[in-house]
From TrEMBL:
SMART domains in the cross-refs: HTH_LACI
Membrane-spanning parts: none
Annotated PANTHER family: LACI-RELATED TRANSCRIPTIONAL REPRESSOR (PTHR30146), LACTOSE OPERON REPRESSOR (PTHR30146:SF153)
Keyword Transferase recorded: no
InterPro entries cross-referenced by the UniProt entry: HTH_LacI, LacI/GalR-like_sensor, Lambda_DNA-bd_dom_sf, Peripla_BP_I
GO molecular function: DNA-binding transcription factor activity; transcription cis-regulatory region binding
UniProt keyword terms in alphabetical order: DNA-binding, Transcription, Transcription regulation
Domain HTH lacI-type: 6-62
Matches recorded under Pfam families: LacI, Peripla_BP_3
Full protein name: LacI family transcriptional regulator
Organism: Serinibacter arcticus
Keyword DNA-binding: yes
Amino acid sequence: MAADRVTLSDVAREAGVSLATASRAINGSADRSVRPELVERVTAAAARLRYSPDATAQAMARGRTTTLGLLVHDIADPYFSAIAAAVVASAETAGLQVSLATTQNDPAREVQLVDLMRRQRARAVVIAGGRSAGSSTEDLAGQLAALRAQGVGVAAIGQPVPGVPSVAVDNLGGSASLARALLALGYRTFALLTGPRQRTTAQERCRGFSDALGAGGGVVIARSETPFTWEGGHAGMLRLIDDGSLHGVDAVVATNDVMALGALAAARERGLRVPEDVALTGFGGISTLRDVVPALTTVAVPMGELGERAVRLALTAEGDVVESVGCDVVVRASTPDLRRR
């Protein structure tokens, strides 16, 4: 009998057991076990016939797959790509395969994808990205709580989700450290590319920066609300330039790195030099910032650590654990020391 045509019924017949017993012996079962002697008989029959178990059937029998679902806002964003790479590596170490989906920054889509992971019987689910204030976070928390109640491991990256083990980025502390570093370099007046006002990440980074700035004698004299994208940073920087808001500004601070890259392109389009005419910073620590000219100052988030911790929490955490990950200011050529001029 050809191996690729051997069915579970053939194995059951060879072992002299029922189809249900053969299925439970090979695929496992969420609620029933098989006597050891019958398991031995069935596995011996499967070996003789060179039967290959069906992974989907095994997952259905055991009540869950070996899949870890990963939801990110935008895989094209280098920030999320770096997190995804770390999640994949950690999941593979744990014997899991990653199923990746993008939420496109849509809270309703995020909730739908979590429900899809539930119906696909994922072993664990990790969601990465900032949250928006309001009912969408409550809806997401409800879906994730339902997953945990069914024995599915869950973890969030970036912003804590109520009732869910989370790895949180210290946005307040990181942005405050950036403000202090820039003040120490002689910068006093700033413009902010804020990101979307409803996003908790943007709120925290703006607040941490502004509070530390005020305590140190600096001031924000212009703001531009923008999406967390290259296009958002580009458009926001153009607005600041074209309406004259950059007059008297020492440095433009973007609340994420991709926005900072868009702002750099906009400055060049308008004939402004960075850092000679205005300095520029980001937040995140994506690797491409080292390769642009000038290399951009940023607040580096340990994205690999975020992914590794999230997988561990999803597979082992009990209760509502929140682990905070610190950030480091990396000063590069886009913010030279003004005291030496």
